[in-house]
Amino acid sequence: MNNKRRKAETPVADFRDEYPRFTPEMKHTHKLLVPDMLPVHFGIILDILRRDGWDVELLTNDARTVIDEGLKHVHNDTCFPALCVTGQFVDALKSGKYDPDHTALLITQSGGGCRASNYIPLIRKAIKAEFPNVPVVSLNFAGLEKDSGFPMDLKTILKLAYAVFYGDELMSLYNQCKPYEETAGAADAVRDGCVKLIGDAFAAGTYRRYKRIVREMIARFSVMPRTGGEKIRVGIVGEIYVKYSPLGNSRLEEFLLAEGCEPVVPGLMDYVMYCAVNNVNDAKFYGMKRGSAFVFGLAYKYLLRMQRKINAITKKSGFAPLHDFEHLRKCADKVLNQGVKMGEGWLIPAEMAALAETGTENIVCAQPFGCLPNHIAGKGTIRTLKHMYEHENIVAVDYDPSATKVNQENRIKLMLATARENYGQRKKQGT
Predict the structure, then answer these.
(1) CATH number for the domain running over 232-266+323-429
(2) Residues sharing a CB contact under 8 Å with residue 61, sequence separation 6 or more, in sequence order
(3) Which of 101, 127, 208, 266 qualifies as a FRET site for 411, CA 20 to 30 Å off?
(4) Statement: residue 8 has pLDDT above 80
(5) Domain locations in the chain?
(6) Crossing angle for the helix pair 186-204 and 210-222, to the nearest 10 degrees
(7) Who contacts 115 (Cβ-Cβ below 8 Å, separation ≥6)?
C-alpha cells in the first residue's frame, strides 16, 4: 500500500520541460535563424524585425548537405518541405557559424492539419541530440506554441501585412520585366532599389502610404529598358513551400526564365486571405467559434480592400495585377467546395482557373511527393479544369529528396513543348 501511495505521489513530468523555451529576454541575447522560403518577402520582413531590435538572419544554405541532414533527422515519409526546413536548420547549426547557446530557430505556422501544426515537434526532435539548448520559436496567428511563440502585437501584425503586400507587388513586377530586360541584371537592380525604398518607408514610419510606394515601384520598373515581343507565360501553383522556395522547387523560376518564359506566381497574400476565409467558413460549415470567425472576417475585409486598391493602381499603369481574392473564391466554387481546406485545398484549383481566365494557360502545379491534401486538390482537379478551359496546359511535378532535377525539368520541358506548339498555332490563326 505504501508503494502504491508513493507511486501516486510521484509527479508526472511535463512534456514542455523537455525542450528549451524562448523567453522575452532572449530578444537581446539570441540570433534568430529563418529558413528561406520567399527570398524577397522574407528579406523585407526580416528588415522590419531588425529595426524592431531583433537579430535575425535568413538562411541561404542550399547544398545537397541540407537535404542529407533532413533525411537523417526526419522520416522520409514526412513531406519534402518539412525535410528541407529541418535540414537547413541542422546544416546551419553544424556549420560552426553560430553559437548554439545564443541561437534560436524561427518558423512560421499557419495552424493547418499537416506539418503546419507539427513543424515545431519535428524540428525540436531533430536538434535535441546535438543542440539541446537551441529553442524553436513559432510565428503564428493560430494560438500555437503559446509558451515559446514569437511575441506579436497589432502594430507588428499590421507591419507584416504591409510587407506581404509590398513583397507580392515587387515579385509580380519583377517577373513581368525580368524576361524582357535589355541589359542583363537590370531587373535585379531595380528590385534591389525597391527593397531599399520599402525598408526606408518602414524606418521612417511611412510604410502605410502604400499608394505612393506602389506607384514608385511601378515607375521604376516602367522606365527600365525592355525588349518587345511576347514570351510564353507559365503559372506556378501548388503547396505553399515548393511553390515559392528556390530550395524546395529546384529553382523553378530561374529554370523558366532560362527557357525563355515569363513566370507568373500568385501572391503570398492569397494564402493569408485563404487562411482568414477558412476561419470564417469554419463557423459556417462546421459550427466552430463564431467570435474568432467575426475577427477573421473583419481582417479579411481590410486586406481585400487594400488588395483591390493596389490592383487598381497596377492595372492603370499597364502592368498585370495580381488576382482579386473574391474572384479566386468564385473560381474555386466552379471546381471545389470551399470547405475543402486541408493543406492549400481549394486555393490551388482556384488559382489554376484564375490563371487560365487571365491568359496564363500553361501551369506548373508543384507538389511535395505524397502530400495527400495537395494531390487531391491539385492533381485531382486537373481533368476538371481542362474540361472547363480548352487550352489549359498543366503539368503536376513532384518534389522530394529522391527526385532528380533533370527528371523534374524534363517533365516541365514536355509541357513547354505543348505550350510552344499551341502558341505557334494561335499565331498562324491570328488569335
Answers:
(1) 3.40.50
(2) 88, 91, 92, 95
(3) 266
(4) no
(5) 17-151, 232-266+323-429
(6) 160
(7) 78, 79, 81, 82, 122
Angle subtended at Cα 127 by Cα 124 and Cα 132, rounded to the nearest 5 degrees: 90
End-to-end Cα, the chain, rounded Å: 90
Q: Does domain 17-151 have CATH number 3.90.1720?
A: no
User: How far apart are alpha carbons 391 and 387 in whole angstroms?
Assistant: 9
State residue 428's pLDDT score: 78
**Over the chain, what is the mean pLDDT?**
90
- State whether the Cα torsion 20-108-36-162 is positive or negative: negative
Question: Would the pLDDT of 422 be above 50?
Answer: yes
Euclidean distance between CA atoms 274 and 142, whole angstroms: 14
Cell 541540407 sits at which residue? 66
Domains 17-151 and 232-266+323-429 alike in fold: yes
Chain length of the chain = 431
Strands, E, within 185-274: which ranges?
232-238, 261-264
Run of H or E residues at 345: none
